[in-house]
């Protein structure tokens, strides 16, 4: 199996991780239109996305819905997506994005999951190997918390402690010598932002307030990440995303839960008579991911040149054994992927075509990486 | 008018001229006595201040009670002078033991008979001692009656005291019900005293048993009695009377005015003094009081009949009292012994005269007591041998006696004045060693202390407001109220904007059909809903008002109840009153007043503070932003429209509620800002210190109704003591007419 570039989504239950991934895929598809490159999903991912889209559609048709009514992820899932040549499905850049149940961040809950510890270890391994850590944030919780009790409930609802702990592990892994030259991107992605912006059909004027609150609330986590990354820089991107676009928070309640803590319920209305999502700024995530790949290519090609003098092939082979980022990059930069794609018995013409298609995919990835971020999106470091 | 009469009239006239000066002098000494009371209290207060440096002054060694005793003696001397110069008549007292002819003498002098002045040879008959005055025109007997209270206090009290029977009853009913010992042996007295006082107990029981005969007269009134009826009021009943009438007990004073047949002096009075040796309580005290207050001269009557021919110890005691009463006046000017010789053997008279010469006058060439021998039963003899010589004597002796008594009082007063003055001077000198702050020093210290104290309490108040302004402070009451309003508004929306969804939809369909468009209806509804939501959230005003009241109450408490006493209109009115007082003080404090005005101007009402911010949330309900759907003009379209408008309304209400939830923090910040501004202006501004001085002065009585404590207390008490001593020194200055009034 071809090695894939890894990313992980880190967020609590019902923050909207699956919705976010769906939105990313949708917007990436639009961005690739007419490039000869498509985004392809493996069968399982396709099924998940389809099911989720149906749930979203039903919610939109009801004109009013509770965001938390959508089924939360019950099991970990690896979204296997690829940027793939239209003409040759074997020519592709694969990505593996982990979407795991937010509740797993709670160790107590993990104890109740069958084989939970093993699964979580796998998740942790994936997170550590990820070049991108995507942290979806329920913007409505941050923005609707006005009273001290409500503000006091925010850390628990957004599971700051657990998120920070995983982020710390990811950052410390990124700080290891073997990963120094690998990309590392942390994306803070406030979701359910529709009410606070005026650039996607709404009248909101609270974009600055949202940025301020995210910076305040997640400042400690960013400090932890920066503190761990003593030997390198970590790129931080602030990307508030509309996953629905056509909805607007109508009411929010802070009911007292059975454990005595405040919960949060948000009720949304559909703007006008829209029934299809109008995603905004989700493509920034794919752009950032592609930038990781492109950055990796640049470094790796430098290494290939150097290998001519320093037995680079052996170095690459060792990287590949670990299936790390450089192994994956090396697989594509060294031409191995092209060789694999050019099955034995192919004609020279066919091999040339394969190489051209690979080049096309590479250009598409580079084009994606070069796509300007949505104006909402800001690099924070 | 005879020479004697003229001279006596001159004496009486001179006395009347002296009276105002004597009264002034008495007033001054009474004031001095009061000052000494204050001095004692002031010295005690300084001692109680527990200040070591003051304790070292030894102020407590000043014997104020002794000083007061000296002033009491001066006042007693002046009282004697007052009694003397205050008399409008020249009074001759008739003294002596019972059954020596006193009443007979009075009858001879006054021309009255046995009914008016009872006389008898056996048992004592005079129950009420009369004062008899000469008048050429008037003839009357006026009795002043006791009240029940005066009877108990002046008559019964003496018996209870002598017999040691405890406090006397306070009413006649209590007297009647009182359980007195049946026998003298039952008295709680030594045996000898029981024997001596036994008759007094008998008399008391007689009084108790016959209350029905005098009780009705105990009314304090005066009664004019016909001379013929007077005996029943002034004489004891007969010993054989089975139901003795003791109305004499109700008589407090008996004054008889009649024409003396033998009088050659107009203003003459005769005083029947209580007889010595009678079974009445405190006989001696009554006797001497009568001598001191009522008479200018005493005739001590002695009838040497039978075994009474000798000058015995009782006679000597009587004379002793007379000497005591004479005071500063020479005794020989004040009294004479009248030997009642009528019907007695000459040897009895001689024996008595011999005894008087040897025992009383001690063979002195100038007798201490003049002795007159006369038969008192004969008016002519009395006129010739008694009254005439006595009046002639008094014509020359009265001025002498008056001078002696007055000089004595003045001398005593001068000595006492000098002594007190020296004591006061010593004390003032001692106090001069104590460095106490001046009034200005105290004012400055008080102002500084007040400013510091208020800085502390105001800062505590601000600390409380800071706590409420902290992010973590939870104004649960406010949040609950905001939630309640939000729920109410939401229910109103969901329930079809107060008219029910079906009715609303029906109305929508009608309007859409009339307008041929949903737009006008939608615009009208959005406007109405926006206005109604804004109105409903206005109910938060009660809580905002309460926060403001709490703010003012906190400030009033910080400034203290003495500066900001409670007002009927609550703390706001109390502070407003303070601002007015600060402005209208004799030395106004405009900066402080302005600071108070500033905090009174804080506004937290919904319309001023909340509604403007709520506009953003409610602007969602403006037609230009609502993006209304195109709907058919039927019930389905109305339903879609209802969903659209109700969703917008719910979102707007949610936004409005959020705005409201921000209010406690903003309100707290606003109040904190006002409070800090107040603190800056009231406590720390450039003019604060100066205005606090004015405040301390203008509100001194209000702020420090009692003295403070510590050094201020000691200082205040030392100053008070100084003040008393200065007053005392002033009071001791000789009056301007001293010396001339003599």
From TrEMBL, chain A:
Give the InterPro entries listed for this entry: P-loop_NTPase (IPR027417)
Protein's UniProt name: Uncharacterized protein
Which source organism does the UniProt entry give? Paractinoplanes lichenicola
UniProtKB/TrEMBL annotation, chain B:
What highest taxon heads this organism's lineage?
Answer: Bacteria
Looking up InterPro entries in the UniProt record yields: P-loop_NTPase (IPR027417)
Q: Which organism is it from?
A: Paractinoplanes lichenicola
Q: What is this protein called?
A: Dynamin family protein
